[in-house]
Amino acid sequence: MIYSLWLSLIGVLSYLFGSINWAVIISKLKRTDIRKMGSGNPGTLNMGRNLGFKFGLLTFFLDVCKGATPTLIAFFVFGDKMFAGSAFYIRDFAVYLCGLCVVLGHIYPIYFKFKGGKGIASTIGVFLVAESVHGPEWAAVAIMAIVAAIVFIYLTEFGAMGSFIAITPPAISGSIRLFLLYGKTRTQTPNSETVAFHIVSNMLIFAICFFTWFAHRKNIERMLAGDEHPTSFKSMIVKAKAKKLQEKRNSESADNQNNAEKSQNNR
User: Fold this and answer.
1) Other CB atoms within 10 A of residue 8 CB
2) Per-residue pLDDT tens for 177-204?
3) How far apart are CA 230 and CA 16, in angstroms?
4) In whole angstroms, what is the distance from residue 117 CA to residue 105 CA?
5) Sign of CA dihedral 247, 252, 255, 261
6) How high does pLDDT run on average in the chain?
7) Is the whole model's pTM more than 0.90, yes or no?
8) Sign of CA dihedral 100, 101, 106, 110
9) DSSP single-letter state for residue 36
10) What number of other Cβ atoms are within 10 A of residue 113's Cβ?
11) Is 3 exposed, middle or buried (0-12, 13-18, 19+ CB in 10 A)?
12) In this structure, are residues 127 and 170 in contact, taking their beta carbons and an 8 Å threshold?
C-alpha cells in the first residue's frame, strides 16, 4: 500500500513537471510566442526553424532533461525493492510510469490549457535514462537511435520520421530487456504477480510511444500527402551564422559611430 501511494505521488509530480513547456517559456522571454510561428508546435524543431539553431538546441536539451529527471529519480527512489509477492523490481515499473506521466504532461500540459508539444525530446530523455541505468549495452541502443535520427533528418529533412527513429529502438530494447529479466528462466517460472507487472510495464512502454506517435498524426498525414514541413539543419546553421555575422556588423557599426561622435566632440 505504501508503495502505491509513493507511485501515485511521483506520477502526479512527474505530470506537473512535464507540463512545463520550455519552448513557450523561451519564446516568451524573446517577446514572441512559438505557438503562433511556423507549424505552431512548441517544440525543438519549430524553435530551431523560427528562433534559430541555438534556441532549438536549448529547447531540446531542456526537454530531454525534463524526461530524464523524474525517470532517474524514480529509479533511485525505489532501488532494489520489489512488489510484495512478486520478483518484480518496483523501479522497472516506476521509470515507465513516470516517463508516461512526463510525456502526457508535455503533450497535454495543465498550465497551457492541455495544449502542448509532441513529446519526442521528453520521450528520448525517458528512454535514455531507463536503458542507460541498466548498462552500457542498453545505453548504446538509445544513443545510436538518437544519432541515427539526427543523420536521417540531416539527409532527408523529414523531422517527424526522424523523431520516430529516435524513440522506437529504445522502446523495443526496453521491452526485450524486461523479457530477459522477468521471462521464464531455467530455474523457475515467474509467478502471476511478476507476470502481471511485466505485462503492465510493457503496456506503459507502448503507451509512451503511442501518445508521441498520436501527437504526430497530422505530420504523418502531411508526409503521406507530400506536404510535410521540411526540417533543414543546414538551413538552421546557415541562418544562425548569418545572424551572428549581422549582429557583429551592427556592433562594429555602432562602435564606429560612437568613435566618430567622440572624435567630433573632442574637436
Assistant:
1) 11
2) 999 988 765 446 678 888 899 999 999 9
3) 32
4) 9
5) negative
6) 87
7) no
8) positive
9) G
10) 8
11) middle
12) yes
C-alpha cell at 78: 525505489
- Band (pLDDT 50/70/90 cuts) for residue 133 is very high
Tell me the H-state helices in the chain: 2-18, 22-29, 44-51, 53-78, 90-107, 120-132, 136-156, 159-182, 192-215, 217-225, 233-266
- In three-state secondary structure terms, 89 is strand
Residue 25's alpha-carbon distances to 64, 221, 235, in angstroms, are: 16, 29, 24
Residues shown for the chain: 267
Report the alpha-carbon angle 117-123-127, nearest 5.
175
User: CA-to-CA distance for 68 and 123, rounded, in angstroms?
Assistant: 8
Q: Which tens digits make up the pLDDT trace of 134-176? A: 999 999 999 999 999 999 988 887 878 888 999 999 999 999 9
Q: In 3-state terms, what secondary structure has residue 82? A: strand
Calpha distance 11→74 (Å, rounded): 9
For residue 26, which amino acid is it?
I
Distances (CA, A) of 70 to 3, 99, 119: 16, 7, 15
Query: d(Cα 230, Cα 227) in Å, to the nearest integer?
Result: 9
**pLDDT per position as a tens digit, 206-246:** 999 999 999 988 888 887 787 777 676 667 666 666 666 66
Backbone φ and ψ for 39, nearest 5 degrees, come out as -75, -15
**Planar angle of CA 116, 117, 122, nearest 5 degrees:** 120
Residue 192's alpha-carbon distances to 4, 32, 74, 204, 254, in angstroms, are 19, 54, 24, 18, 74
Residue 39 has what DSSP assignment? T
Pick the closest to residue 82 from 70, 74, 90 (CA basis): 90
Considering only the C-alpha atoms of the chain, give the largest distance between any 2 of them, rounded to a whole number of Å: 96
As a whole number of angstroms, the distance between CA 204 and CA 83 comes to: 17
| DSSP character at residue 35 | G
